[in-house]
Specification:
The chain has 26 helices and 19 strands. The protein is α/β, with parallel strands linked by helices. It has a 5-stranded parallel beta sheet, with helices on both faces. Strands 7-6-10-9-8 form a 5-stranded antiparallel beta sheet. It has a 5-stranded parallel beta sheet with strand order 12-13-16-11-17. Strand 8 and strand 9 form a beta hairpin. The N and C termini lie far apart (103 Å).
Length: 643
């Protein structure tokens, strides 16, 4: 036997005879019986292997009612009785049999020993009648000391061992409940099967996925379970093949993406792996289904963002800045040199020439393309606010500054800040900008600390900064800082060869937006565009073509269009043939009435001219497919012009 000091050794003696209680005191209390603990241990050497011998705590009851109350109180105070000796005959009141029934109703774990005299009816028959065989023994009076001691020691150990097992079982149950709660909260469908394919465990997610309880799923044979499960998959045949493979090779680890169609259509990641015992024998497999629909959706969203970013980069890529004149080719060369460094760039050009477009193209092709591009129009911000707008301010820095504000330089940190119309910047702000460019740090209005920044500066102006320096309107030292790498964009009147390309580019864009089948310009319309000096440059040309598209009623933009009729020739040296292949050829003047076939033919000729006889690009520009354009080219004998 094994005994522990913290075990329960409470023993209740229930008998109406005082001498019985005295006998138990002598038999179970060594000091009263004149026997030392060592002697008692030696007497039970065959049963007791430990040096510790327990000291019993004896409780006494003279009636069944008193016994019931003692046990009830012991349970309520969490100090239960381990063993109870109950006499069968205890007149008057309830006898031992009834006492046992009542005690069992409140304490199922107590060990009970019924005591009886020789003259009693066979106790075995009484016990069978009572159906109280659970944790119940009986002995006959008178009994020997060794008998009581052995029985009490054995039953006390039994009670304590079973109590510990119950506690461990309860802890295990709690652990299982926690584990199940964790498995249920994962959002995954998880199940375990034995090597024959029978379900052993399923969490809530698995039950919901296959719309059956775990108990019902456990009762299914592997074949029936497979038939039930496969109906939920978009490809039931593939699911069945996989299950057959796994049953034949339980050692395999398997991963796949599968689609389920009910109760809700979604994509699942399926993972199956073998389960081993402590000796590394395969005892089954675990299967996990994880909903990856959201992950796929997020992946698709990331792909869409990437696509949009690519479109943005393509929009501002050099080859998307429309213009093939030698003047623009020189601009492209300078832009290409600027993108690889952090040098401050100064873009000069008339209003409407596309200075911000050039700045964005430099940014999105530079190593800083993933960081912010912040544009500031220095001429549009009031003098009293420009410093706060650029550098930010602290709370209370001036009237109305109720909270801290981050300026444009901080917002652009890591990226590019574009200072448009920098020549209009006030002298005080020019001085602070010079310090920022020199020190690479800013100070908020009302602040005392310096904030380091990592920003590339691109400035732009439509004025001559050198003249502004001579007149004292612009700081000379700041000029040399911002003009580290100058790029001049020529006005549109100095690169007329780009007018047809720009015009066609804007025509395609706005015709598509307005859902109008306008394919090109008539000769008269193009003559008007080419003979005008465009003081508003590309911006004016774009606005003019946009209005013309909205007002046009035919398939070709005509010279009589109200948006074009106000354009007057301002270029003295222009003739229709001055620009060779830059101008598409149209046979008719704007006042001539053409047949639909002639208009279609001219549209084809124009598209081929603009695309340099590239049939694929011509088909895309006209909004038709290659087969259709081949048929029409053959119809109008234009096949020799394509490639």
């Amino acid at each position: 036997m094994e005994f522990k000091k913290d075990w329960n050794y409470r023993v209740l003696v229930v008998d109406d005879q005082q001498e019985i209680h005295q006998d138990f005191e002598e038999m179970l209390t060594p000091s009263l019986m004149g026997t030392s603990t060592d002697d008692l241990a030696e007497a039970f050497a065959s049963e007791v292997d430990e040096s510790f011998l327990p000291t019993f705590e004896l409780l006494h009851a003279r009636s069944g009612a008193e016994a019931y109350n003692i046990i009830k109180m012991a349970i309520e105070t969490d100090n239960p009785v381990a063993v109870a000796y109950i006499d069968i005959r205890m007149p008057p009141g309830i006898d031992g049999i009834e006492t046992t029934r009542r005690v069992r109703s409140i304490d199922e774990n107590i060990e009970i020993v019924l005591m009886t005299a020789y003259t009693d009816k066979s106790l075995g028959e009484i016990v069978r009648e009572m159906d109280l065989l659970h944790k119940l023994l009986y002995i006959r009076k008178p009994f020997a000391r060794e008998e009581i001691q052995q029985i009490t020691l054995a039953l006390a150990e039994k009670w304590n061992v079973e109590s510990e097992l119950d506690d461990k079982h309860l802890q295990l149950e709690v652990s299982n409940q926690r584990l199940e709660a964790v498995l249920d909260s994962t959002g995954d469908a998880i199940a375990m099967f034995d090597v024959t394919g029978h379900l052993k465990f399923a969490n809530q997610g698995y039950e919901e996925m296959f719309e059956l309880t775990t108990e019902t799923l456990k009762q299914m044979s592997p074949d029936r379970l497979g038939e039930h499960a496969k109906q939920y998959f978009q490809e039931p045949g593939h699911f069945e093949e996989t299950e057959t493979l796994l049953l034949a090779h339980p050692e395999k680890v398997f991963e796949e993406v599968a689609e389920v169609r009910q109760p809700k259509r979604k994509m699942l990641y399926r993972f199956t792996a073998p389960v081993h015992d402590i000796e590394q024998n395969i005892i089954g497999r675990i299967t996990v289904f994880r909903d990856i629909s959201k992950e796929i959706e997020i992946s698709q969203m990331k792909a869409e963002v990437s696509r949009l970013r690519t479109e943005l980069e393509m929009k501002y890529a050099f080859d998307k800045i429309v213009g093939k004149s030698k003047e623009m080719k020189a601009v492209y060369a300078l832009m290409q040199q600027a993108i690889g460094s952090n040098i401050t760039v100064l873009i000069q050009g008339e209003s409407g020439t596309g200075k911000e477009l050039v700045a964005k193209a430099i940014h999105v092709n530079s190593p800083r393309k993933a960081e912010p591009f912040i544009a500031v129009n220095c001429a549009a911000i009031p003098e009293t606010l420009i410093e706060s707008e650029l550098f930010g301010h602290e709370r209370g820095a001036f009237t109305g500054a109720t909270m801290q504000r981050i300026g444009k330089f901080e917002s652009a940190n890591g990226g590019t800040i574009f200072l448009d119309e920098i020549a209009d910047m006030q002298p005080l702000v020019q001085a602070k900008l010079l310090r920022v460019l020199q020190e690479r740090e800013i100070q908020r209005v009302g602040g005392t600390g310096n904030i380091p920044i990592n920003v590339r500066v691109i400035a732009a102006t439509n004025k001559n900064l050198e003249t502004a320096v001579k007149t004292g309107e612009f700081r000379e030292d700041l000029f040399y800082r911002v003009a580290g790498f100058p790029i001049s964009i020529p006005p549109l009147k100095e690169r007329r060869k780009d007018i047809p390309l720009l015009g066609h580019h804007f025509l395609q864009e706005y015709a598509k937006a307005a859902d109008k089948p306008i394919s090109g310009f008539s000769t008269g319309a193009l003559q008007l565009l080419m003979s005008y000096d465009w003081p508003g440059n590309v911006r004016e040309l774009e606005n003019t073509v946009e209005r013309a598209v909205l007002l046009e009623t035919s398939d070709v933009l005509q010279g009589g269009n109200p948006a074009l009729s106000g354009l007057h020739a301002t270029s003295k040296g222009y003739t229709p043939d001055s620009y060779g292949d830059s101008m598409p050829s149209f046979a008719s003047a704007s006042t001539e009435i053409l047949s639909l076939e002639e208009i279609e033919k001219q549209a084809l000729v124009h598209a081929l001219g603009v695309t340099h006889n590239n049939i694929t690009k011509a088909a895309q520009a006209l909004g038709i497919n290659r087969v259709t354009i081949h048929r029409k080219l053959k119809k109008y004998n234009l096949l020799d012009r394509k490639r």
